Amino acid sequence: xxxxxxxxxxxGGTSGWIAAALLKKVLGPVVDIDLIxxxxxxxxxxxxxxxxxxxxxxxxxxxxxxxxxRETKATIKLAIKFENWRVPGEGxxxxxxxxxxxxxxxxFHHLWRRAQQLGDTxxxxxYDLNYLCAEAGKFAPINSKDPxxxxxxxxxxxxxxxxxxxxxxSEQMGVVRHEGKVSSVTQHxxxxxxxxxxxxxxxxxxxxxxxxxxxxxxxCLIWTLHRWQIRSLFSSKPAAGVNSGTAMWCRWGYPxxx
Length: 258
Fold this sequence. Notes:
The chain has helices at residues 13-27, 53-61, 65-72, 108-117, 129-136, 159-173; strands at residues 6-10, 32-37, 47-49, 75-77, 79-83, 91-95, 154-158, 176-179, 182-187, 193-197, 202-205, 207-210, 217-224, 227-234. The protein is an alpha/beta fold.
């Protein structure tokens, strides 16, 4: 079998540049990483809501958090708040932390429920540090081995700025960007593909990773039972910013720094 010498990522944006950056970080000089994107198509520059694993991604890449926050105009995210959860006016927090401290064979909420039966009137939220900080609008990194004091967090940031930040970061590691629109992808045997662009440029590669685009056409070349297969997935535009009075819809708000 022919060894993989080059990976071409089709499409930029956050997904494309994350793929390119991670591959280059993990594989280093062993494999060349190219990315094809078109300025004519661009990226969807919206507020991006993340969950705590985004910090693991940034840490693996070696991204400085202070620089990341500055370049993407990010804010800290401690929880997700669902407003009008059961009835109008009621809210619910899905926090990234856990309330209280569980025992080996008994989770904390059982202890709290027993305390309620014995007359305690303390709310469960009073034991959730993420909730308390979110309500107070406070945050500070906490370095502690005590899980009660852990404060897991994520970010809100501008997706367009994050893609731009990752592009600069990736190119510094050696990722090569090509401007163009892909017109065709053809297989030439032994897992080698030729990717042609509208500018009549072509690359022979062993792997293609297809990132999302505004055209909502997703293609994946996947390895299954030592055979290359092509799978095309079609997706409609996600519903963002929907305002409805029913419980079936939600309106998302992504605060970023300006």
